[in-house]
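PT: before anyone asks, these are the final sequences, not the draft ones from last week. 510 residues across everything. Please model them as a single complex and drop the result in this thread when it's through.
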Amino acid sequence: MIAIKRSNQFYNFVSIAGVLLLWQLVVSAGLFGKLVPSPVAVFKEFIDMLQNPIGGRSLFMHLWFSIKRVLTAFITAVVTGVPLGLFMGWNKKVDAIVKPVFELLKPIPPIAWIPLAILWFGIGETPKVFICFVGSFVPCVVNSYTGMRYVDPLLIDMTKTFGATRRQQFIDVGLPASLTAVFAGLQNALSLGWMCVLAAELVGAREGVGYIITLGMDTANPAMIIVGMLIIGAVGAAIAVIVRRIERIVCPWKRGITS
Amino acid sequence: MTDLKERRTKVEVKNLTKCYDDLLVLDDVSFEVKEGEFLCIVGPTGCGKTTFLNTLAKFIPATKGDIYVDGVPSNPMIHNLSFVFQEPSCIPWKTVEENIRLGLEIKKIPEQEIKTRVEKVINLVGLQNYRHYYPRQLSSSMEQRVVIARSFVMNPDLLLMDEPYGQLDVKLRYYLEDELIRLWKELNSTVLFVTHNIEEAVYLAERIIVLTPKPAKIKAEVIVDLPRPRDFTAPEFVKIREQVTELIRWW
Ligand SMILES: Nc1ncnc2c1ncn2[C@@H]1O[C@H](COP(=O)(O)OP(=O)(O)OP(=O)(O)O)[C@@H](O)[C@H]1O
Ligand SMILES: [Mg+2]
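LR: through. Structure below.
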C-alpha cells in the first residue's frame, strides 16, 4: 500500500517536472520568440510581484479581493440555492412553480450577465459578486435537486412504516441522502464562481487576480499573465481539496471504519 | 392461545383489488387476521404478495376495497406496525445502532428506554460487536439482521414481514424463526409473514393462506394446529407440508 502511494507521488513529481522541462526546452529553442517566457522568467516575475506592489496593492491583497468576491457570492448562492434545489426535489408543487423559469435561465452562461450587471450595479463590488453568484447558484440548485430526486423511495417508505411525518422523512432520509450530490454541487459552484470572478475582473476592475492578468496584457508582460493564471489554478485546486475535506467530515459513512 | 375464532379481528381485508394500470394483480381478495395470530402467506413468485403488504402499509393506494386495522383503515401514523422489506433497507449513512434506533426516534420514545431496548435486540441478533459499522461494511445477511432488529425493537403489535429470511443461512434462519416465535408470544403481536418457503410457513404459522398466481386470489387456507416447538420430521408436520406443496403445484 505504502509502496504504491510512494510511486504515485513519484509519478506526480515526474509529471510536473516533465512539463516544466519541456516548457523550458521549447523556450530555449526560441520557437516562440519573446511571446512565451521561460519557467525561470515566470518564477522571477512571481518573486518580483511578491516583493513589489502591483497597481498600488500587494499580490496578496489582489488575491484576497478575488477570494472575497467569490466567497461572498458562494455563500449567498449556497444559502439560497441549496434549499431551493432541495425543496424543488422534495415537493412537486415547488418543482412545478420554479422549474420552468429555472430551466430557461440555467443555460445562459454567467458571463452573459456582465453587461446587465454593469448597467444595474455600476462598476463597484456588486456587479462582480453578482456574476459570481449567478455562476455558483446554478450548480447549487441543480445538484441539490438531482440529489433529492434520486433518493431511494424504499427508504422513504421505510420511515413511513414507523409513522414518520413528512418533515421527519425529509430530515431522516431526504436531506442526508442528498448530501453527496449537494457537495458535488458545492465543488462545482466554487470552481464556477472562481471562473466568473476572473471574467468579471477582466472587465473594469482595479484589483483582483483578473486585474493582474489585464495589467500584464496592457504592459505586454506575458510572465505576469502566466503568474496570474497559475495563481488561479493553484487556488482552484486548493478549493477542491478543502471542500473534499469538509465532505469527509460531514459524510462520515463514506469513510472506512478505522478513521 | 385461545381458539382462533374467538379472538378479536386485528386486520380485515375487504374486497381488495389492485391494478397497476391495466395489470390486475390482486383480484377481490378478502380475509381476516385475528389478534395475536401468526399468519403466513405463500404464493407463486410475482403473484402480488409484496403488493398486498405495500397496500396495507399505505405505500400504494388500493384500486378498490380497503384494509382495516383495529376497525379503522390501516395507517402507520396511528397503528404500531413494523415492516421488514424484501429488499435490503438499511440506511447507508447510519451505523448499525443508529439504524436500529430509527423507528424509536421517529416515535419519540424517551432516550433511556431507547437505549435499553436497542441493547436488548442488538444482542438478540448478535450484532453487538458491529454497532458502529456502516451497512456497506456488513454482509447481506448481517444487514438483514439489522432490519429485523429494527422491526423487533418497536415491539410492534402488527408485524409485516416480506420474505425476511430469504438472505440468511439455514442455521441463522432457524435461530431467528425461533426468536420470532418467542417475540410473537411475548408481545402477543399479530404477524403477517410472506414466504416462498413452505417448510418455513408450516414451522411458523397458525394459519397459512395460499394464493393463486397473478391475479392473486385466495386458493386455500390451511390451519396448522401443531404443538410448539415443532418438529420438521414429525409425520403431522410432513403431512401439512405435503398438503401445502400440493396446493401450490396444482396450476
Ligand atoms: N410499481 C409497479 N408497477 C407496475 N407493476 C408492478 C409494480 N409492482 C409490482 N408490479 C407487478 O405486480 C405483480 C406482483 O408483484 P409483487 O411484487 O407484488 O409480487 P410478489 O408476489 O411479491 O413476488 P415475489 O414472490 O417474487 O416477491 C408483478 O407482475 C409485478 O410485475
Ligand atoms: Mg415480493
